[in-house]
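Q: Given only this backbone (542 positions), what sequence would you predict?
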């Protein structure tokens, strides 16, 4: 019996259990009572609508399930950002579905709701995926309108994207299944086709109360903007549905008739499961973020048949670059080795640190994968680039810049899995959110920050000490320790994967055993969008 393995396994399974408990609560949206109220009105919940729509025999993945987690507490919270987003298959066609959750503030838009909707549209645009909008929203959450309404990446960008996506030939279908008010009314009507559910769906620029206040007209909402009005009088909507399921069946039928378009042509063969037991990941991954482990052992439990072809295996060992297959798809993997390694040229090198030789190797490997049209998978557990006089004199900045350049200009789809640390410029070089990965997810063991908690807390403590000394405040060792713990606690909260997922810095926190599913679904989506741009590194420092 391996005691270390068992302790690690227990720790990581507890982290997973915490995630599952949190998600179970999130899936209830505004709570079971509000779901029951929807059912009494003859309506399905947002998740029930999506489940009914998606093919049962195909995998699906949820984007941003933890969006809004811990945010807007003074407003009553906003589980999942008040909108559910899933990538799955409808009548055999891969699509992305966006459904307002009417149990969360009547589906009103918080700032994070807009950000999540824009993320869904971004995924649709990048992968040329049909997008389905299931609309049931009271519109902008007025107490926070200044954070939702006016800026470039706010509410109005949704409708701009509707128009751009239409010009790109991306299918957009909307079902109005509840309220659809004010500016939000443009979203379904800027779609290719729009349907409305009789008696429960309504769409108007201004509701009956506002109409009364603005022009003195007395009219009820159904007459103003119900299904009969818009299907028989205004012609705003294209189909009238008798209930939620009737509308969803219509969507299935329409999507089932969409033709096939040109594919990107990524290589795929018959999938094989890893030869080694995937569940052993829990015993390999350490409890503490500064402990060593062998990243090769993680890779072997993610790739098909646990086989890979490593590039420059004996050079730049702090980054592993290897060709492999995941669920049959050919991939190029770039992963941080977390063991202390010995370089014949450089001597001992710390695990999780990017050195000049490993940055050079990764840059060349990224170029190779672009030339061969092989998608890239980044397995992040990185503390940053090596510092100190030896590294600076050796040109670590220019070597790191080469790697950042290659990641930035890569034209093949990129997918990022944050396994452990994701610190500072290491996050950038290993394809953090700012570098347009098609999907980016974290394991429960992940941490995201500009630097590790211990280092950051000590730096922040020095700043706080200097400020207090200027004010003439004496600090003894006890006070210093209290300050350090307070700073570290706050900083640690902000490095949590939940903090990142809540703000959509990642697309979610996943069970490590779902990693293959996420990458496979991501590449299948990317395969719908042929590569149209040539790979060009531009000018690099030599």
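A: Predicted residues:
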């Amino acid at each position: 019996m391996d005691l270390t393995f068992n302790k690690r396994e227990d720790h990581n399974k507890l982290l997973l259990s915490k995630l599952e408990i949190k998600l179970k609560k999130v899936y209830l949206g505004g709570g079971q009572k509000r779901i029951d109220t929807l059912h009494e009105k003859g309506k399905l919940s947002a998740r029930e609508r999506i489940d009914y729509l998606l093919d049962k025999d195909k995998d699906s993945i949820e984007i941003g399930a933890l969006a809004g987690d811990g945010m807007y507490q003074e407003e009553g919270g906003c589980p999942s950002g008040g909108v559910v987003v899933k990538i799955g298959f409808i009548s055999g066609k891969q699509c992305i579905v966006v459904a307002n959750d009417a149990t969360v503030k009547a589906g009103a838009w918080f700032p994070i709701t807009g950000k999540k909707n824009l993320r869904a549209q971004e995924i649709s645009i990048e992968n040329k995926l049909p997008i389905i909008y299931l609309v049931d929203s009271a519109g902008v959450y007025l107490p926070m309108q200044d954070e939702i309404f006016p800026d470039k990446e706010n509410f109005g960008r949704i409708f701009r994207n509707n128009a751009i996506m239409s010009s790109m030939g991306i299918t957009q279908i909307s079902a109005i299944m509840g309220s659809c008010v004010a500016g939000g009314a443009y979203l379904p009507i800027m779609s290719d086709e729009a349907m409305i559910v009789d008696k429960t769906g309504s769409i108007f620029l201004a509701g009956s109360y506002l109409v009364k206040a603005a022009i003195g007209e007395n009219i009820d909402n159904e007459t103003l903007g119900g299904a009969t009005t818009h299907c028989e009088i205004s012609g705003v909507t294209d189909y009238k549905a008798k209930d939620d399921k009737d509308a969803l069946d219509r969507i299935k039928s329409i999507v089932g008739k969409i033709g096939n378009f040109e594919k990107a042509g990524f290589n795929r063969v018959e999938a094989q499961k890893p030869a080694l037991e995937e569940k052993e990941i829990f015993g390999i991954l350490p409890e503490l973020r500064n402990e060593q482990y062998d990243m090769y052992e993680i890779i072997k439990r993610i790739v098909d048949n646990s086989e890979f072809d490593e590039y420059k295996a004996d050079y730049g060992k702090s980054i592993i670059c290897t060709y492999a297959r995941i669920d049959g798809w050919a991939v190029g993997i770039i992963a941080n080795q977390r063991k202390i390694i010995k370089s014949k040229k450089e001597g001992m090198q710390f695990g999780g640190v990017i050195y000049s030789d490993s940055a050079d190797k990764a840059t060349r490997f990224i170029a190779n994968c672009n030339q061969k049209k092989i998608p890239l998978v980044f397995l992040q557990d990185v503390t940053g680039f090596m510092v100190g006089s030896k590294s600076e004199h050796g040109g670590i900045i220019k070597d790191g810049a080469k790697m950042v350049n290659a990641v930035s200009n890569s034209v093949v789809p990129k997918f990022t899995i944050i396994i452990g640390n994701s610190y500072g410029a290491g996050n950038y070089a290993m394809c953090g959110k700012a570098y347009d990965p098609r999907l980016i997810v974290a394991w429960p063991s992940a941490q995201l920050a500009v630097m590790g908690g211990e280092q950051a807390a000590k730096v922040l403590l020095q700043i706080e000490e200097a400020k207090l000394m200027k004010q003439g405040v004496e600090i003894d060792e006890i006070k210093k320790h209290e300050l350090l713990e307070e700073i570290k606690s706050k900083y640690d909260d902000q490095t949590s994967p939940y903090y990142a997922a809540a703000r959509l810095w990642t697309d979610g926190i996943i069970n490590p055993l779902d990693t293959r599913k996420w990458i496979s679904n991501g590449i299948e989506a990317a395969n719908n969008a042929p590569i149209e741009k040539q790979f060009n590194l531009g000018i690099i420092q030599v």
